[in-house]
Design brief:
The protein is α+β, with helices and mostly antiparallel strands. The protein is built from six helices and 16 strands.
């Protein structure tokens, strides 16, 4: 990792605050990550699923000490789904004593260097992704990088994002949530748990997201990848020379052909290969 810090305002992320006496139990029954043990100043990666176990929203849950001496939680979500997420949380609230409000504060990523000053929270998915900050100033000496540069940083590390999984199409294990600290299989029930736990328990994961490399511009999202005459997967998102793809794990021997005939090759990140091989 470079020793130079980069800071990126994540304009595609937004915040929801969940507070009140029942906020832990309320979220605990909904999301894929354990909330009961979430500490102030800690972030956990999670998802809210459909009852059928498909991925609706990715979430970062941020534990906080509140001004009244208690604790509350920030939900860091995609900005374009914040209203829909708020509506869904409100439906699930029922009689729980929780307050769910929108919070207008900037979300930022800090990456490429050593641990920053207090207030920045380690990204729970992968150490190399750096840190996330909420309503913080950039540390002295950090260079400004745009969202495309940060997205390429994540892609270089082999970490998929919302552009890859969409909404209500993908199982979280296919998007590597189980390997990026996004699912706690030891916690109690959550929405979509039955399908998620069964996939993990039975080892029925046939498809996962991982990067591919190729020459030139990225193919269109949805472009087919072939291993000989067999369909090996499809391209999701990417940039020059590299893209994220949803790939069949049993069809990855040798080069793959893009829809336009170019050769491509799976590029296994060390963290993913070690986990899958294990």
């Amino acid at each position: 990792m470079s020793s130079h810090l980069f800071v990126t305002p994540l304009k595609d992320r937004a915040l929801i605050k969940v507070a009140g006496p029942d906020w832990r139990g309320f979220l605990q029954g909904l999301v894929t990550q354990d909330v009961e043990t979430l500490r102030a100043g800690e972030a956990r990666f999670a998802a809210l699923l459909t009852p059928q176990g498909r991925l609706l929203y990715d979430l970062f849950l941020i534990g906080r000490s509140s001004v009244d001496g208690g604790e509350d939680c920030l939900i860091d979500c995609q900005a374009d789904v914040r209203d829909a997420l708020l509506q869904r949380l409100t439906i699930y609230r029922l009689r729980a004593k929780v307050e769910i409000t929108l919070l207008d504060a900037p979300v930022m990523a800090l990456w490429g260097g050593l641990a920053p000053a207090a207030g920045w929270i380690a990204d729970p998915r992968l150490p190399a992704l750096g840190f996330r900050g909420y309503d913080l100033a950039a540390p002295p000496g950090a260079s400004l990088a745009d969202e495309a540069t940060y997205a390429r940083h994540a892609l270089d590390l082999g970490v998929p994002g919302p552009a890859d999984w969409g909404s209500d199409k993908t199982y979280p294990i296919e998007a590597n949530f189980d390997l990026l600290n996004g699912i706690d299989f030891k916690k109690g029930c959550f929405v979509g748990q039955e399908t998620t736990s069964r996939m993990k328990r039975r080892g029925t994961v046939k498809t996962r997201m991982l990067p591919i490399t190729f020459d030139g511009a990225p193919p269109d999202a949805g472009s087919e990848l072939l291993n000989g005459s067999l369909r090996a997967g499809e391209v999701l998102s990417g940039s020059a020379g590299r893209a994220m793809a949803a790939l069949r794990l049993d069809r990855l021997d040798g080069d793959l052909a893009l829809a336009d005939g170019r050769a491509s090759r799976p590029d296994w990140p060390a963290w993913l290969k070690a986990a899958v091989d294990g």
